Amino acid sequence: MKYSAYYVEENDGVFSASISELELQKPEDGFVQIRVSHSSLNYKDALSASGNKGVTRNYPFVPGIDAAGKIADANSSHFIDGDEVIVTGYDMGMNTPGGFGEYINVPAKWVVKKPKNLSTLEAMSIGTAGLTAAASVLKIHESSENSDLPVLVSGATGGVGSIAVMLISMLGKEVSALTGKSSSTDFLKSIGASNIIMRDDYLQTDTKALERASFSSAIDTVGGKILSKMLPQISPHGVVACCGNVAGIEVNTTVFPFILRGLTLAGIDSAESPIEFKTSIWNKFADEWKLDLSSLIKIVTKEDLQQEIDLILKGGQQGRVVLEHGE
Ligand SMILES: NC(=O)c1ccc[n+]([C@@H]2O[C@H](COP(=O)([O-])OP(=O)(O)OC[C@H]3O[C@@H](n4cnc5c(N)ncnc54)[C@H](OP(=O)(O)O)[C@@H]3O)[C@@H](O)[C@H]2O)c1
């Protein structure tokens, strides 16, 4: 049997993608086969789709670090055919073919049963971006609870950033949204930001070792100069959740924010987090953290993916892109 996938090939160091028909393999013991109804686009997928060997070593390959759908062949005692499930991260979409194909074969231990109160479309509107935002919010939540200062979110219009803005505002905290997109002010306000800071203005002044405390905590999705700039601006005992690197991998800081203000720099790695943690986050999203993400998503087909990948690589996406596979 054949299935259709967004398929990336390498020819003489040049990477190109097509919608291809691939042969469906039977799942090995301990693996399940999933008929994917929805996937989503994350920054890491765009890197895999464009030949970044730090993400995907060998091509041809089917990217897609997120998938939701139904078990089609449960070669494991943990699932039965027809179970509705979600898979995010681990090696899927890196070196194990992922959700940009209509079928995936993955180890049963990577798979979460989808909560009933969440559709596959809603699950993929959240995806790895939402899990990362949620993991970051859990890191900062306690430290910012008793402060009146806002929480700073960088890359605020992006996938991780926009869900972080929504979650923090839903939890009753003010959010300052840091963005490069002057056209997205209304969008950011509509999802809960109370104050918008433009990236160019933010980076205009030199960074000092310690600055006036302006934020209770922060979620940084971009790294580089922006992460370096925010560390001295966090109030005593705040937390900065560090989860992304689109602006750079280096951080320039002194020890002052740490030894004079007790700052915590908390790393986030949602892809490799334990399945029990992922399950608990999915249950939160289906219940007390239920979000209406309809204003945040763009639903696309495999044929539309390339233009969305090109846009995310340029930093131009707003919100989340959900891939819908046909019946
Ligand atoms: N640690 C983890 O577990 C984990 C999981 C998921 C993703 N990530 C990482 O998180 C980051 C965001 O992922 P995503 O899927 O949300 O991507 P995304 O949708 O493209 O969001 C990134 C946002 O960052 C801003 N940005 C882009 N280029 C920039 C630049 N050169 N300088 C400053 N800001 C820039 C843009 O927002 P504005 O225009 O609003 O500023 C962009 O929309 C990526 O680095 C990704 O690898 C990490």
Could you explain the architecture of this structure?
There is one protein chain. The chain is α/β, with parallel strands linked by helices. It has 2 domains: 2-114 and 296-324, Medium-chain alcohol dehydrogenases, catalytic domain (Quinone Oxidoreductase, Chain A, domain 1), CATH 3.90.180.10; 129-267, Rossmann fold (3-Layer(aba) Sandwich). It has helices at 43-49, 120-144, 159-170, 185-190, 199-202, 224-230, 256-259, 275-286, 305-313; strands at residues 2-11, 14-23, 31-41, 66-74, 84-88, 103-107, 111-113, 151-153, 175-179, 195-198, 217-220, 239-242, 264-267, 297-300, 320-324. Strand 14 (297-300), helix 9 and strand 15 form a beta-alpha-beta unit. Bound molecules: NADP nicotinamide-adenine-dinucleotide phosphate. NADP nicotinamide-adenine-dinucleotide phosphate (NAP) binds next to helix 1, helix 2 and helix 3.
Per the CATH scheme, the topology name of the largest domain is Quinone Oxidoreductase, Chain A, domain 1
Amount of beta strand: 25-35%
CATH secondary-structure class of the largest domain: Alpha Beta
- The separation of the N and C termini measures 15 Å
Shape: globular
Shape-level CATH architecture of the largest domain: Alpha-Beta Complex
Largest sheet: 7 strands, mixed
- Report the strand count: 15
